[in-house]
């Protein structure tokens, strides 16, 4: 009798869980291929950590295209960081079907002020869009706090670290007064 399969655990018999497809397109061609790959890879990891399946299509655009979409879809003039279009039949489910637009120019401005790379800021925007599709809201103060805390917790879980509200350590000689 062949006993080669006797040592397999029941987990070995389970098929791999379905993955969430995350496609990132740099519509302006303003980022390097390695930067786009880093964003896409980490967005997939984030979707996996959220337990998502389905697909998120991400288009990275500049201020002009974002401002045009912003006024067309929300009636608000000017650019913004992220617009999310949840195309799923049952909003709030872990099955994503979303188009997400993120603004590279806004990410560069925010990242400069926060002292991290624009790619990290763009990843934050993508996660923000995914969380909206999963039922998170940021329209009032309490939900704003919960949603952005969820973003930072997820970024920590996938090894990137807090990005919306990073924990800043005082520099040597700059300790707060007591």
Q: How would you describe this structure to a colleague?
A:
There is one protein chain. With 178 residues, the protein is α/β, with parallel strands linked by helices. The chain has a single domain, classed as Collagenase (Catalytic Domain) (3-Layer(aba) Sandwich). 43% of the residues lie in helices and 17% in strands. The protein is built from 6 helices and 4 strands, in the order αβαβαββααα. It has a 4-stranded mixed beta sheet. Helix 2 links the parallel strand 1 and strand 2 (53-61). The longest helix has 17 residues, at 33-49. It is globular. Mean pLDDT is 85; it is low at 1-16.
Summary of the model, kept short:
It is built from 6 helices and 4 strands. The chain has 178 residues and is an alpha/beta fold. It has a single domain (18-157), classed as Collagenase (Catalytic Domain) (3-Layer(aba) Sandwich).
Topology at a glance:
Blueprint: H1 10-13, E1 20-26, H2 33-49, E2 53-61, H3 63-74, E3 82-86, E4 95-103, H4 104-114, H5 118-133, H6 141-157
Parallel strand pairs: 1-2, 2-4
Antiparallel strand pairs: 3-4
Helix pairs in contact: 2-5, 4-5, 5-6
What distinguishing features does this structure have?
single chain, 178 residues, alpha/beta, Collagenase (Catalytic Domain), four-stranded mixed β-sheet, 4 strands, 43% helix
The count of strands amounts to 4
Net shape:
globular
Mean pLDDT: 85
Strand arrangement in the largest pleated sheet: 1-2-4-3
State the distance separating the first and last CA atoms.
Answer: 75 Å
Relative strand content = 15-25%
């Amino acid at each position: 009798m062949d006993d080669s399969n006797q040592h397999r655990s029941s987990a070995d018999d389970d098929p791999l869980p379905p993955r969430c497809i995350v496609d990132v397109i740099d519509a302006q061609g303003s980022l390097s291929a390695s930067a786009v790959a880093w964003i896409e890879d980490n967005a997939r990891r984030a979707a996996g950590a959220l337990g998502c399946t389905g697909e998120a299509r991400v288009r990275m655009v500049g201020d002009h295209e974002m401002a045009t979409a912003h006024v067309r879809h929300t009636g608000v003039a000017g650019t913004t960081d992220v617009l999310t279009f949840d195309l799923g039949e049952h909003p709030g489910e872990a099955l994503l079907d979303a188009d997400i637009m993120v603004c590279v120019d806004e990410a560069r401005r925010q990242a400069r002020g926060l002292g991290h790379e624009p790619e990290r800021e763009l990843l934050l925007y993508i996660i923000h869009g995914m969380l909206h599709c999963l039922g998170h809201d940021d329209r009032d103060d309490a939900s704003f706090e919960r949603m952005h805390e969820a973003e930072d917790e997820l970024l920590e879980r996938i090894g990137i670290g807090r990005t919306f509200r990073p924990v800043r350590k005082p520099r040597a000689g700059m300790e707060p007064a007591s």
